[in-house]
């Protein structure tokens, strides 16, 4: 989560029927000088909607039906149907427990899912909590794992992925002086079942922080990392860190095998959500969404990238 407070957009009414518009702002890949990159740009869309529940997206998952589900740091959701097509549309499903929540308990920073059962998990940064939901978004469980309790402020879970073998990996955005790397926890199974997990560290690239993560069909884990320079407006840089989950060891640093910058044609923005849509022949479609911080000088961008590892 990145907090910006000096310039807020106009306060809009809450309108769950407000349509979501999508304007194509970049297309294709014109990059040169990076022939070994597995990433190629498909398109970038600027999303807008005239409702207070729109924006601030910090989590993203690709559902089995081809739609995308984004979560915001105010606990609201955006369903994107037919993403990247002429019929792309958005709607606002509700978490059964969102209404009336305090900001501390609504800071949804990560989503992950079991594509077979449709079960969804959400991680809340400020309250250091993980929740499990049914495919219909009814809350089934909520825990505050022991290994995460010492986190404070925005030091709670920022990125989370359910691995294909049923384990869960959770990363914090900030670093703590007493531990190497970014704080991380590996759970042997669904953390809402009560397992404490084991601690380790994530070695982010210099000057960057983890903001979301996902897993490819071959088992490779991708972590979206981001840096920010505090100009006005701020300048962002994003990359994809490539890791092998076999390399996770208790108390050790989990180091990327490779760090891949986004294609130059992708506009700079505060990308905080990453999802993968499995494809044929070893290819995958990656989706990114940006957190506009509900500010007047940032945008909600949806990015489609093809991955050929």
Order of strands across the widest beta sheet? 1-2-22-21-20
- Number of extended strands: 22
CATH class categorisation: Mainly Beta
CATH architecture field: 4 Propeller
Report how far the terminal alpha carbons are from each other.
29 Å
Order of helices and strands: EEEEEEEEEEEEEEEEEEEEEE
Number of domains: 1
Q: Number of helix segments?
A: 0
Fold-level CATH name: Hemopexin
Tell me what portion of residues adopts beta-strand conformation. 35-45%
Mind summarizing the main beta sheet?
Answer: 5 strands, antiparallel
Share of helical residues: under 10%
Stretches where pLDDT is under 50 for at least 5 consecutive residues are none
Radius of gyration, Cα only, in angstroms?
18 Å
The overall average pLDDT, rounded, is 88
CATH superfamily: Hemopexin-like domain
Structural class: mainly beta
* Oligomeric nature of the chains: single chain
Structural features:
5-stranded antiparallel sheet; single chain; 0% helix; Hemopexin; 45% strand; globular; 5-stranded mixed sheet; 309 residues; mainly beta
3D structure, described in words:
This protein has 309 residues and is mainly beta. The chain has one domain: Hemopexin, CATH 2.110.10.10. It has no helices and 22 strands. The chain has strands at residues 21-27, 39-48, 57-62, 68-72, 77-81, 89-91, 108-113, 120-124, 129-133, 139-143, 157-162, 168-175, 182-187, 198-202, 209-215, 221-229, 235-243, 253-254, 258-261, 271-278, 283-290, 300-308. A five-stranded antiparallel sheet has the order 1-2-22-21-20, with no helix packed on it. It has a five-stranded mixed sheet with strand order 11-12-13-14-18, with no helix packed on it. It starts with 20 loop residues before the first strand and ends with a strand.
């Amino acid at each position: 989560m990145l907090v910006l407070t000096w310039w807020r957009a106009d306060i809009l009414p809450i309108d769950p029927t407000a349509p979501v518009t999508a304007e194509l702002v970049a297309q294709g890949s014109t990059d040169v000088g990076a022939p070994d990159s597995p990433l190629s740009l498909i398109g970038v869309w600027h999303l807008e909607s005239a409702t207070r529940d729109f924006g601030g997206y910090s989590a993203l998952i690709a559902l089995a039906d081809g739609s995308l589900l984004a979560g915001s740091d105010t606990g609201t959701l955006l369903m994107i149907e037919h993403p990247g097509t002429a019929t792309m549309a958005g709607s606002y499903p509700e978490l059964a427990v969102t209404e009336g929540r305090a900001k501390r308990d609504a800071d949804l920073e990560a989503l992950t899912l079991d594509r077979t059962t449709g079960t969804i998990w959400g991680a809340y940064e400020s309250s250091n909590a993980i929740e499990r939901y049914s495919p219909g978004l009814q809350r089934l469980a909520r825990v505050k794992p022991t290994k995460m309790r010492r986190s404070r402020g925005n030091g709670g879970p920022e990125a989370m992925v359910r691995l294909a073998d049923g384990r869960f990996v959770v990363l914090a955005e900030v670093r703590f002086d007493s531990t190497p790397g970014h704080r991380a926890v590996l759970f042997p199974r669904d953390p809402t079942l009560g397992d404490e997990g084991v601690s380790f560290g994530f070695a982010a690239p210099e000057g960057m922080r983890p903001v979301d993560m996902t897993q490819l069909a071959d088992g490779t884990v991708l972590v979206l990392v981001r840096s920010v320079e505090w100009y006005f407006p701020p300048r962002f840089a994003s990359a994809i860190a490539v890791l092998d989950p076999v390399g996770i060891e208790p108390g050790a640093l989990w180091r990327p095998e490779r760090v891949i910058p986004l294609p130059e044609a992708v506009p700079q923005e505060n990308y905080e959500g990453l999802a993968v849509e499995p494809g044929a022949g070893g290819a995958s479609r990656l989706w990114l969404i940006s957190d506009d911080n509900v500010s007047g000088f940032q945008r909600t961008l949806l990015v489609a990238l093809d991955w050929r590892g």
